[in-house]
Design brief:
Layout lengths: L19 E5 L3 H16 L6 E5 L21 H10 L2 H11 L5 H24 L7 H6 L14
Parallel strand pairs: 1-2
Amino acid sequence: TDIFPIEDISKLAPGYGIPKLIVDGQDLFACGEAALRAIAHTRKGKGPIFIELKVLRCQEHNVGGLNYEGASPRSKEVMDEWKTTRNPLKLATAKLIDESVLTQEEINQIHVQTEQEMDEIEEFCEQSPKAMPSIKEMMSAVYVSNQIEGDING
């Protein structure tokens, strides 16, 4: 709320005639249900719907940038609590097990399979030729010549 003066940005939507949903963005199933509701709403010809997903960003926007100690807007304690109690993958895994959709063994197998796939993808990327364009090619889409026909500046 230091950056934006209201806690729920979706409160702005009704002023534009757009209905809103506020959803726990850490809950994968709640997000899916909200998306399905919004799709059904829109397909009925009722127009757009504003979905606000309440989430906690675990990393700063500038990933790869400088990381100054204490620069995070959240304390280490808050981050640790959210990572352990509000982690979307852990919450979804627990629900799948609780509702007997998957067993822990099946989830472990999915993790192993996913790790193998990611390793294969990484290897493919490492072995692929670099497709870096030349500086001239990169700059051609950034700058425009001053010699534009019909330039109003004369």
